[in-house]
TrEMBL record:
Keywords: Methyltransferase, Transferase. The lineage of its organism: Bacteria, Pseudomonadati, Pseudomonadota, Gammaproteobacteria, Lysobacterales. GO terms for biological process: methylation. This is Methyltransferase domain-containing protein. Signal peptide: none annotated. One of its GO terms (molecular function) is methyltransferase activity. InterPro entries: Methyltransf_16 (IPR019410), SAM-dependent_MTases_sf (IPR029063). It comes from the Bacteria. It holds the Pfam family Methyltransf_16. The keyword Membrane does not apply. The keyword Transferase applies.
Length: 225
């Protein structure tokens, strides 16, 4: 990609391998079209989307075996799209989303790199109404609670776009904001669960990675704005 150094890494997930083009490092920043400025993303944060982080791999591993039959799925903050690609390979109905201007380009490249049909993509600002987005049976994300303000924004989005009977799965590397998010989800009628999972090869229990699950059998939710 012009302006960036990239490399390709192989990730073995489920019964297949996925080749993912990623940024070669997290120090890169090129913004000739002022896309970063328009998106409100600082130069320090700009390149973070371009890696498969441990929490992202943990989410992809979970999606390799999760029950997804007949479900409409939304991935939040997809980055390079590994979890969405795993779901696409399984034939799932998945929509990937992010706010980074380069996420869609990398996602499309990675789908082609793995011989997959393009993954539907939506640029999504969690704070902005998105009525055409509709509702989903399963909403997933990795490391999406790294700032305190993300709790309210994410909870609000889920209220607007989760089905009355829905499941939410968040791969979290042990951020301090997960407790507040769980309380917000319980207030929306979800029952929480937590699984501890390894985030690095060779890691031993107690694992720092957490797969936060929230399941709601039925609830009355507000209409999508």
């Amino acid at each position: 990609m012009p302006g960036y150094q990239t490399h390709i890494r192989v990730h073995a997930l489920g019964d297949r391998e996925f080749r993912i083009r990623a940024l070669a490092d997290v120090q890169q920043f090129a913004d000739p079209d002022l896309a970063a400025e328009r998106a409100g993303i600082s130069s320090a944060q700009w390149s973070l989307f371009g890696q498969v982080w441990p929490a992202g791999r943990m989410l992809a591993e979970a999606m390799a075996g999760h029950d997804v039959a007949g479900k409409r799925i939304l991935e939040l903050g997809c980055g390079l799209g590994l979890a969405s690609l795993v779901l696409r390979a399984r034939g799932a109905d998945v929509l990937a989303s992010d706010r980074h201007p380069l996420a869609e380009v990398f996602l499309a490249y990675n789908a082609a790199l793995n011989g997959l049909d393009a993954v539907p993509y939506r640029t999504l600002d969690w704070d902005a109404p998105a009525g055409a987005l509709g509702r989903f049976d399963l909403i997933i994300g990795s490391d999406v609670l790294y700032e305190r303000g993300h709790v309210a924004a994410l909870a609000g989005l889920l209220q607007r776009h989760a089905q009355p009977a829905a499941e939410v799965l968040i791969a979290d590397p042990g951020r301090g904001n997960s407790g507040a998010f769980t309380r917000a989800m319980v207030a929306q009628g979800y029952v929480p669960t937590e699984q501890r999972r390894a985030m690095e090869a060779g890691e031993v229990a107690p694992f720092r990675g957490r797969l936060l699950g929230y399941r709601r059998a039925a609830a009355i939710t507000a209409e999508v704005a």
